[in-house]
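During the no-cost extension, the postdoctoral fellow (Dr. R.K.) reprocessed legacy sequence entries with the updated structure-token encoder. One reprocessed record is reproduced below for audit purposes.
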Amino acid sequence: MDDVRLQHGAFCWNELMTTDVASAKQFYGALFGWTTEDDSNTGVDYTLIKVGGEQAGGIMALPPDCAGMPPCWGVYVTVNDVDATAGQVEALGGKLLRPPMDIPEVGRFCVLQDPQGAALWAIQLLKSC
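Re-encoded structure tokens follow.
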């Protein structure tokens, strides 16, 4: 693999889930010079974050099943097999916050919490980040 982001254990994507997508786009655009592009190919209103014309992350509204959760950044780590990764979490002292589920045309992911309480997203990609 030429792209290190596709290798097992590599950080590959960053995603903001927020209550106000428009304000987030304005804030981060002004702060970091990010450009954005709307992308609803997966059936979800989604905004791609671009740096130098290259995709670097995304922004989306907090989904209904996350009601009451504060806005947060999700950090994705590439894994070869998300189901196997999810199966190891509790044995290693962590907690599975969201079991593996599919993201159409993207891959399969889960959300885990390490023994110290930090959350992280693991993703098995169908294609490049």
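The chain is about 15% helix and 45% strand. The chain has one domain: 4-125. The remaining legacy entries will be reprocessed before the final report is submitted.
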